[in-house]
Predict the structure of Tryptophan--tRNA ligase.
Amino acid sequence: MTETTFTPRVFSGIQPSGNLHLGNYLGALKRFAAAQNEGIESIYCMVDLHAITVWQDPADLRRATRELCAGFIASGLDPEKSILINQSQVPEHAQLAWIFNCVARMGWMQRMTQWKDKAGKNAQNASLGLFAYPSLMAADILIYHATHVPVGEDQKQHLELTRDIAAKFNHDYGVDFFPLTEPVIEGAATRVMSLRDGSKKMSKSDPSDASRINMTDDADTIAKKIRKAKTDPEPLPDNTDELDERPEARNLVNIYAALADMPVEQVIADHAGQNFATFKPSLADLAVAKLAPIAEEMSRLMGEQDEIDRILTRGAERARAITAPILRQTYDIVGLVPPVEL
Ligand code: AMP
Ligand code: TRP
């Protein structure tokens, strides 16, 4: 079998549940705009079908989906250059997910740490959708034959599973149809940690709002959360090795580096010997300078809901020009009899 070369194509998704936070921005959104500007065809998705694997209030889900779209655009995505979609508006995602449910094995899903974390001790009561979540994620990516997926560190295992599904499909059917997608986990902030606990990732599900900086927080709130962030009493060291034992200090330095587009080494060189009483206000100023214009643009766009809905409708139309033929070919490979013209 000859190796097929696939045209580079980027895909990524974010769940419209809860607030967008600094982890989403630095781990994902900020880097999406970078990929777009390199001129690679890119599709960015609000994964509403993933969101409902746990309970979502319908009105909140609608609002969060539109707000996420506003967040994508405010972070620099141009809906003309990139394709912005809402997952449920492109039915081929869910259709391919069913095929993948028949390719993936129960044991693969059981090993997913996100499943274990989210289902917890109450797995018997979790939704079947939550268990199958990674299969739908593989379909999101592979329905575009996407080759590169920019995400935060927490999604690495799901992307390995996506490769396993593609490889098993190709092997079982004796084809070279789905690409083995590359995760793109880069930058100083692939895992932004909670501001209250340096051992936990910053997350929208953390009950403490002080643990995260939301994209819609105002300048005062951002400054206050950074001032109150947990740290240790030592000043900043003059080399990065010494940060290894200091997770909270490392987190603030990483956030600074990612926001300033600077190597971590440079941040350390510039701030070595400073106490947090000095470093935190600099970080707060930087965070406000970078995030406030995004929050402002998001709130402006939220006032133009019809425009957002039009962008998503147009995105879905462009997306389906890619997904419909790939689904048709998949069905053909699997042996599903297609409809004929009557
Ligand atoms: P989610 O909000 O779980 O849908 O995640 C959307 C994107 O943000 C994914 O690419 C995640 O990997 C990324 N992400 C979420 N939380 C963090 C975090 N604390 N640090 C870095 N990236 C994150
Ligand atoms: N599982 C991802 C998250 O929670 C969201 C997601 C769904 C995704 N489908 C995707 C990310 C496809 C990248 C590619 O963060």
Remarks:
- The pocket of adenosine monophosphate (ligand 1) is lined by residues 14-15, 23-24, 27-28, 151-152, 154-155, 190-192, 201-202, 204 (CB under 6 Å).
- The first helix runs from residue 22 to 37.
- The radius of gyration is 21 Å.
